[in-house]
Amino acid sequence: MRRRTFLTIGIASTAAMAFGVKLYSDKAFDDSNYDEHHRVLLAALVPVLLDGILPEVTQPRQRAINRCIDNCLTTISLLPEHQAEQMQELLQSLEAQFGNLLLVGSITPLALQSPAQIQQVLESWRNSFIEMLQQAYLGLRNLIIASYYSDPDVWPTLGYHKPNIPGAS
Questions:
Q1: Is 104 in contact with 110 (CB distance < 8 Å)?
Q2: Which one of 107, 112, 117, 148 has the largest count of C-beta atoms within 10 Å of its C-beta?
Q3: Burial label, 74 (beta-carbon count in 10 A; 0-12, 13-18, 19+)
Q4: DSSP per residue over 57-122, as a string?
Q5: Which of 55, 52, 35 is nearest to 43 (CA)?
Q6: Geometric angle at alpha carbon 136, from 121 and 50, rounded to 5°
Q7: 10 Å Cβ neighbour count for 45?
Q8: Whether the Cβ atoms of residue 149 and residue 51 lie closer than 8 Å to each other
């Protein structure tokens, strides 16, 4: 095979695969499924990023995780449009096989990996020389931590009491 033919086939294959991934990802994630797909992914990420913060007892721990996931989804919907789109794209990429392969380096979905594997992926993003991966790490971390601490049920454990302002509800 000549070099020119090899390069042409390689470029055509790459373009076809990119087009196929784009078509697949558009069909796989319609607006009605965002919350459900994100819920599964966030359920894997929340315990890892809040390790040592969440309650140790099973039922309160699961309630805290579920409230945090609800708060994450609410927060994403309240972000400025550009930031919300970026967060949606990141979550969708982590949920799609091709995006997961590029970002995580594994075809196993992030939601199915062990907490130790997820922690290793997040640490590699945190310490990466690629700024986009650092931003992905910080975005997920800040979203989850802010969503957890925005829950009024967590405030008493911090010793924080909502100010009582006369005339305000």
A1: yes
A2: 148
A3: exposed
A4: SHHHHHHHHHHHHHHHHHHHHHS-HHHHHHHHHHHHHHHSHHHHHHHHS-SS-GGGS-HHHHHHHH
A5: 35
A6: 65
A7: 25
A8: no
CA 90/CA 103 separation, integer angstroms: 9
Rounded CA separation 23/43 (Å) = 27
Q: Please list the pLDDT of the chain residue by residue as tens digits (169 residues).
A: 566 666 566 665 665 555 555 444 444 444 445 567 789 999 999 999 999 888 889 899 999 999 999 999 999 999 999 999 999 999 998 888 888 788 888 888 888 889 999 999 999 999 989 888 899 999 999 999 999 998 888 888 888 887 788 877 6
Per residue, the 3-state secondary structure of 10-65, as one string, reads HHHHHHHHHHHHHHHHHHHCCHHHHHHHHHHHHHHHHHHHCCCCCCCCHHHHHHHH
pTM for the full model? Answer: 0.74
